[in-house]
Amino acid sequence: MENEIIKKALKLHRRIKKHFTKNIEVEKSLSPIEEDLEILIRFEEKKIFTLIRNNMASNQITVSEKAFFHELNDKEWHDLFWL
Q: Is-contact 26 19, C-beta < 8 A?
């Protein structure tokens, strides 16, 4: 079951990536990109995050969060919009 969920998530990611790599005029693909992103986000919210929550101890999740998140500063981002 877990393996099938991971395979589907990877397939959805590849599908989105194709919109940007195979299509010269990305602007014309905005609607399909939006639809595929919506599908991916809902799938990850319902399946992937549940799978992670059920298979990781709470202390592992906390350690993982610390590995991915850090304070942003203006030296990292030249565009103040992202701060």
A: yes
Tokens of 17: 């990536």
Residues 70, 65, 59: CA angle, nearest 5 degrees: 135
Q: Give start and end residues of each alpha helix (H) in 1-83.
A: 2-21, 30-43, 49-55, 58-68
Give pLDDT tens digits for 10-45: 999 999 998 888 867 777 888 999 999 999 999 999
The candidate with the shortest Cα–Cα distance to 37, out of 7, 52, 17, 8, is 17
Residue with tokens 């565009």: 79
Q: Which two tokens stand for residue 73?
A: 């500063």
**3-class secondary structure, 64:** helix
